[in-house]
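G., before I forget:
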Amino acid sequence: MDRIEKMVMAIAIVLLVVFFGAIVVAATSYGVDVPTCITDRKPFVESAPPFKTSDQPLRYEVHTVARMWMFDPPEITVPPGAEIDLYLSSADVVHGYHVEGTNTNLMAVPGAVTYTRLKFDREGTYRVLCHEYCGTAHHLMVGTIVVSHRAMEGEQ
Amino acid sequence: MNAALKLPVEPWARRLVLLEIVLPVVLLVLGIYAGLLQVLFRAGVIQAAEFWGWEYYQALTLHGVVNAIVFTTFFAVAFGNALVPYALGMKLPLRWAWVSGIVMIVGTLMAAWAILAGKASVLYTFYPPLMAHPLFYIGAALLIIGSWIAFFNWIPLYLRWRREHPGEKTPLAVVGMFATFIVWLIATVAVAIEVVVLLIPWSLGWTQEVNVPLARMLFWFFGHPLVYFWLLPAYTMYYTMLPRLGGGKLYSDKVGRMVFMMFILFSIPVGAHHQFAEPAVSSGAKLLHSFLTFAVALPSLLTAFTLAASLEHGARQRGAHGLFDWIVKQPFFSTDGWMFSYLIAGLVIFIMGGISGIINASYSMNLLVHNTSWLPGHFHLTVAGPVLLAFLGMSLHLLATYTGKAIRLKRLAVAVPYLWLVGVFIFSWGMMRGGLHGEPRRTNLGMSYLNPDSPFYNPEWKLYVTVAMIGGIIMTLAMIAYFTVFFATALRSRTQQPAAEFPLSEAYHDEPVGALANLRPWVITAIVLIVIAYTPMVRDVMRGTFSNAPGYEPHNPAPVNQIEQLDTSP
Ligand code: HEM
Ligand SMILES: [Cu+2]
Ligand SMILES: [Cu+2]
């Protein structure tokens, strides 16, 4: 290899190392991470709308079941600022779970449970799209997350 | 450009290669038609579940299987059957070559029947527990096994060549094809296990349930190297032919060999980058695979340099001066070296494909685009970019030289890749922008999100799907032009003696290659890397999976084994 080729190789390696370094920094220092393997929850077919697991205000847990061709519960309502521990399970085939306009992007895989934490600061209605092909009516599989102050009132 | 060396080919070797070229091109007509339907459905122009008997997801299955699996596998085998013996100056052993071809054809026909009969609308990734007809899986297994036989048939040929040519460098073209099939062989072992051990007995009703996370891990063990199986025959053309077609020499033979070895090393231990969003895989394994994915970007960056340097060298030989003159002085529209247009247009497309690929591989950033239409936008810039154009160009070249028929409508043939380039750029812009705004892939948008009568109507995507449709129509026109040239050439009468003829390049820097001369250490290191990358994956899948799943037909939310029970109860 001649001098220029060696230089090109060095530049390419540095570039890739910088890219990957940025990813690691984002994951470790800023908590921008992907869903992971959880081993303490069994798959479930009974859903649960948002409920409190601790005294902390604005902290909820939701159990969502994806099935051909709906999310159960189809709609959940939470107050702005809510932090939701979402557990996602599939009752039949593989489904997707993408909250429109956010980075919440999961797969529901039969046999395992997917976990992520959602946080909504702004009021509004967010659609949840199934974005993995799950059969004939896949394109009709849509859920809703409503973020509204009224969720708080209902609780009191 | 002086004429390339012509070597005679035995009639039955010729017929085999021609069969393996013509059959997939004929099937590609269906695959492209399905692609056109998809952009029309997605743009809301067709607002129905089906069009002329083609259901959306059935057509999409056909599109993926034919374009990305059948066409590519047949091409790689045909190309190897022609190029390996040519580069070694030997004859293709006929018996096993034909066995391989027949097994592949039988498998393809089985799977094609299942798809066209509507019994296998599970898409080309066939994720369980969606269940297809057993013939779909058996057909896929036969296609793969047939391609293995083709590879095994070249190995004794090569070993004999080494004995007869001690101390000589293996021709780069042979290194390229062997790298292609080594990657393919290792990768397909996993999918063969998935299909033969898990899915075939399950679809036949011999087993009731399947471990879905395990099946997905096995699939993606195969799924990423699959894209390098597509790419490496194109790289072989880029390294061994493009420099000569551009009027120059390959800048460095050694870098070419190094690039192929790096692909053997890093193509496989990266599958989890398709599984960032899923359970039963830990973030540690995901990050490790992400890292190795960055490693496999390295050979492509080196290739970009070496090819540009080769083309620049060629142009400077012809008197190009200054900084940019060499770019203008490439034979873009030459009808003599017409294949140049296919290779160069593909390379230009691949710049965008490579950049978007690095975005996909970027771990947490992947969540922004995962399963949105960004993804098909991206991979039409790779598999339907450099891969498709290189394969189309070489298919036409093989047709012409192996039948001894001069190409008809050569000007049209040269226009095809540029028309495709324009089309695919427009198409991918629409798909990728829509994806960033949440437009899902694998979805019949015309029945919901792009249908004003639907409660899910989302006019925000109208612009993107329309742009993608316009691009898709241009791509279809390019393919109609290609089919016209291909069949007009196939149907004319012979103009010269059939022969094998490949425009193989010389090297500008032709150094000794040291450790790169031998494949074995690289294959062994690759296996070590695979073990390192997949040990944590296997452990995660074992720990994170609690139950297996029964099968489901795509149109029925009740599991298959329950439906059967209902059928048989009085
Ligand atoms: C006229 C040309 C083409 C058009 C208009 C077209 C259009 C499309 C569209 C719109 C999709 C996404 C559909 C969806 O996700 O709902 C798609 C998927 C796909 N295309 Fe193409 N395409 C064309 C040619 C090709 C070629 C030549 C190849 C490969 C060589 C190819 C490979 C694929 C693959 C592998 C998929 C993914 C299928 C899946 O998600 O299951 N396409 N195509
Ligand atoms: Cu779904
Ligand atoms: Cu990949």
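Residues B 224, 227, 273-274 surround copper (II) ion (ligand 3) (CB under 6 Å). The radius of gyration of chain B is 23 Å.

More on Monday.
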